[in-house]
Amino acid sequence: MSGTQSSDSSAANRALNVIDPHSPLLPSDEMVLPTLQGDGKRRWLNPALAKGKYWQRRRFLAYALIAFFVTLPHLRIGGKPIVLIDIVAREFTFFGHTFYPTDTDLLLLLLLSVFFTVMFITAVGGRLWCGWGCPQTVYLEFLFRPIDRIFAGTAGKGGKPKKSLNTLLQTARFIVYLICSLFLAHTFLSYFVGTDRLAQWMQMTPKQHPMAFGVMAAATFGLMYNFMFFREQLCMVACPYGRFQSVMLDRKSLIVTYDIHRGEPRHKGKSVQGAQGDCINCGHCTAVCPTGIDIRNGLQMECIHCTQCIDACDDVMRRIKKPEGLIRYSSQDALDGKTHSWLRARTLIYPMLILTTATLFLVMLSTKFSFDAKIIPSPGVPYTVLASRTLQNNFRVRLTNRTSIMEKYTIEMLEPATAVVHWSDVQPELGPNESKLLPIVITAPVGLTAGKGNIKAVAKITDSASNSRLVTFRMSGP
Predict the structure, then answer these.
(1) By the number of CB atoms within 10 A of the CB, which of 147, 153, 156, 219 ranks highest?
(2) Which stretches does DSSP call E strand in 64-170?
(3) Which ranges of 320-445 does DSSP label H, i.e. alpha helix?
(4) Distance between alpha carbon 57 and the CA centroid of its chain, in Å?
(5) Contact of 377 with 395, CB cutoff 8 Å
(6) Are strands 390-401 and 454-463 parallel, antiparallel or unpaired?
(7) Which of 242, 245, 331 is CA-nearest to residue 291?
(8) 81-85, 201-205, 355-359 — which one is most confidently predicted on average?
(9) Are the beta carbons of 279 and 316 closer than 8 angstroms?
(10) DSSP states of 164-205 as a string?
């Protein structure tokens, strides 16, 4: 970094850290946080708006993601929601398949696939998720900040408010925030209870569903506090992803970066060819940054790769007849003149891990049964020899219906062939997602065990849709 850049950076940092000379606080040469002033007070950010090509793409994607988030709970596959996280019933429905606490292997593989995918995207494209897909960024930059700009009189431009909000405008802004937060909170709740149940609750009083109302109220309060007060600090203070980037990034990962070799030394006004860099120190890149950083200081944890500085700088470069790309998507190696390559250890290992976990997940999902069945011995005497010289074993079958319809089940013995099994009660009938422990009786000739004490047995259980599975257990005898 050149001396000019260091000087400008230090001056900017000191300007943000001005404190009362009579204060017992010691001055700092560097900013602790872009949203923290030297005296410890909050530095509120009002970023300007650069409507360049990247912003246009981000806006299109943001509104598509908002529409996706709102409509997804209403979509169905086979009568089931595409996504439903029913914590009370301990069920997770994903694209028509329902997972239970016993499906820990499937859930683990699904989470691993998502985790490796995030690591792969970060290794290749840096913090694309933060700037382009994270709900915090999407809603803050394309819903709540535009609301602020309307009330502040800077709609479509951003920057510092043209007027201070009086009580009436502040109240109106609060009401708009509350309406948006209520809508988002109800949409969020629908992912956990389903849209049908949510519609019923909305027609009831809070006394009839106090827990659900409490969750909705807490979610609304959390959204209000986050988007009205906490804002960009969530990305810089609370979210761990920014801190993980130092582990997941390497020098070949794409990042939003300032070309120091081309831009330095900085200057004001018209440049002298060959003596000065292209950066005219206009401050547009810092004015539009939603986290308040100066991208010219290099890779920083607070950068969310929103590309606003790229759009702002490109606009300035066009005006002064300079090539675009002073701030651009690049890599640290590319800036140092090294050859950029997409193929490296990370970009090869991560796809292999994704492919492995995703394949295992799909294979296990394809072999997943529409019901669970397990045969366990009944308590008490393991076997009985009847007067008719017949061996009798008593067992219990744990049946779980994984479908969304009523099912009936039949059972038959495959091994040993001479054994006969029947339900102790009537043929069992289980409702959707219902589980029962049902007694069965198995009879066989006395000499079947032949002094071994127990033998292998196999039973076949079939549901109404002719889906069947084999259950292996041990039969006891003399």
Answers:
(1) 219
(2) 76-77, 80-81, 83-86, 91-94, 97-99
(3) 332-335, 345-366
(4) 21
(5) yes
(6) unpaired
(7) 242
(8) 355-359
(9) no
(10) ---HHHHHHHHHHHHHHHHHHHHHHHHHHH-HHHHHHHHTS-
Tokens of 346: 């990370």
Residue type, 92: F
Contact predicate 132/61, CB 8 Å: yes
Helix 345-366 to helix 104-125 angle, to the nearest 10 degrees? 150
Q: Quick count: other Cβ atoms within 10 Å of Cβ 429?
A: 13
Contacts 24+ apart (CB under 8 A), 332-338: 332/251, 332/252, 332/255, 332/257, 332/299, 333/251, 333/252, 335/257, 335/259, 335/260, 335/261
Query: Residue 310 — φ and ψ, nearest 5°?
Result: -65, -50
Instruction: Confirm if 478 and 451 have CB atoms less than 8 A apart.
Output: yes
Residue range 162-172, pLDDT digits in tens? 878 899 999 99
- In single-letter form, the type of residue at position 406 comes to M
As a whole number, the mean pLDDT across the chain is: 85
pLDDT in tens, 108-165: 898 899 889 988 888 888 888 899 999 999 999 999 999 999 999 998 898 888 878 8
Q: Is residue 270 packed enough to be buried (19+ CB in 10 Å), middle (13-18) or exposed (0-12)?
A: exposed
The two three-digit tokens of residue 128, written as one number? 């694309």
- SS3 state at 63: helix
Tokens 């959707």 appear where?
432
The span from the CA of 25 to the CA of 326, in Å, is 38
What is the pLDDT at residue 3? 40
Rounded CA gap, 7 and 11, in Å? 6
CA atoms 134, 135, 137, 143: torsion sign: positive
Count the helices and strands in the chain (H runs, E runs): 16, 16
Q: What is the mean pLDDT of the segment spanning 53-81?
A: 92
Q: What is the pTM of this model?
A: 0.76
Cβ proximity of 38 and 16 under 8 Å: yes
The pLDDT of 338-343, averaged and rounded, is 76
> Which residue do the tokens 């041990």 mark?
474
C-alpha separations of 176 from 172, 222, 231 in Å: 6, 15, 17
Exposed, middle or buried, 128 (CB in 10 Å: 0-12/13-18/19+)?
middle
First-to-last CA distance in the chain?
Answer: 87
Domains defined for the chain, CATH in brackets = 1-31 (no CATH), 44-368 (no CATH), 371-476 (2.60.40.10)
